[in-house]
Amino acid sequence: MDRREFLATSAVAPLGAGLGAGIAGAVSGDGDLTWWPAWRIREAIVSGKISALAVTDHFLARIARLDPQLHAFRVVDVAGAREQARAADAALARGETPGPLFGVPMALKEHVAVRGFPAPEQGHRPGDVASIDLTPVKEDSICAERLRKAGAILLGVTIMPGMGIAAGMPDLAHHPRNPWNPAKVPGSSSAGSAAAVAAGLVPAAIGSDGGGSTRLPSALCGVLGLHPTTGRVPNANYKSQKLMLTVTFGPITRDARDTALIMKVIGGPDGRDMLSTVHPPAPDYLAHWDGGANGMKLGWTDDFGFASTYFVPETPAIIAQAHAAAQGFAQLGAQVEKADVALEDFWPHVATTMAQYEGHTQTEAVMRADFEVRGRNRARMDALLERYDFILSATAVYTAPTVEQWNENWKAPDYPPRYTAETFMFNWLQLPAISLPIGFHEGMPVGLQMVGRPDSEPRMLAAAARFLERFPQDRRPGVS
Q1: Boundaries of every domain in the chain
Q2: How many helices (H) and strands (E) does the chain have?
Q3: Helix or strand (DSSP H, E) at 90
Q4: Are 109 and 208 in contact (CB under 8 A)?
Q5: Segment 112-135 mean pLDDT
Q6: What's the whole-model pTM score?
Q7: Which residues of 56-90 are buried (b: 16+ CB within 10 A; e: fewer)?
Q8: Catalytic option among 141, 213, 393, 456
Q9: In the annotation, is 10 catalytic?
Q10: Among 87-91, 289-293, 317-321, which stretch is predicted with the lowest mean pLDDT?
């Protein structure tokens, strides 16, 4: 069934009558379960303070109440989620060792295959939306397989508008909505995942990032979104012949420790994904947790030397806000200074190289020119990352537009590079980056991006955790 059919089923109705508040009060009286990080939920279940079933019912109730406004989910399996939760409670009662995500409800972006859910192929053009295959798949992706083994409750898949590359919904009335203002979008293409996490429909979700598609929705929704080192989270797509060398899979959370915990679960080589086996074993994403940002040298850039081409009228105010937030790392013991960053524009070179990876023939001259631009940019970033631990910038150079503006924007050929102005470069260069929530511009969230060298995520996440402890983002969306 699709999202609307799910929401119409009678199985959801009994969950909507104040169940969440009752559970939260029964735990410890120190806050709403809705906003607890995943690691804390897992601790409460393992310690016996609450059952996995009660936690699952709490979040199912929130989905039933709020998703009619947000349209974040393609499908939610109420019966299947409750069955997983009951099985978790029974396993705990038998004395089995709980996994690192034991009992934590999670959602995945719909093209990341989850057994029993549809997994439409990324890359459909908006005009092809009606032909999207929503047949449930029979096998988990590697990511879902690892989450399930770690004890997570996989309760649904979230909508990927535009099939990852545009606005593209057959009906704008059912486009995913931003919980801070439901007249506006949560971005693309991990839109449903970011909206669901921001609104407290799930503690954490999985997104994917082919040009900023985890970081940008996270910035526009006020949550954390990680684009990890390329190949670190393996994937084997048996339906597609494409080599998606710019795409990563990563967590969307409200808590940096949750991000590290999920990466410990889903990161690391798998022989089914050739790109993942180029790497040694994954780093310990909690290894530098006590270090924070102390002693780091951080470089700030407004535009990486080229992105000002894509700025819009509100961009200067957003850049100023992100720059002010970046200075906050100095209060954590880091040195922050303006970096001399002079990269060459990624567009249209990145489009040419992606087309090549997807099997479209290019001339030798075009390929040479594009790869030489990439080579120069990677060399410049490598040199910068010898001088700095991380480079800081704004994540998005705009705030979330309305659904109608969004739909019109994607009709313009120059919109993809504008949308991804400060993010796509690091998919192309295969460098990890994260977006952190830093506050609001005219009522809508703004994000700060950190870019690092490959496998720098343990230190990146430790610094992010200390930053968010010092500068917490405690406001809750209107639709939550």
Answers
A1: 3-470
A2: 16, 11
A3: helix 78-93
A4: yes
A5: 72
A6: 0.93
A7: bbbbbbbbbbbbeebbbbbbbbbebbbebbeebbe
A8: 213
A9: no
A10: 289-293
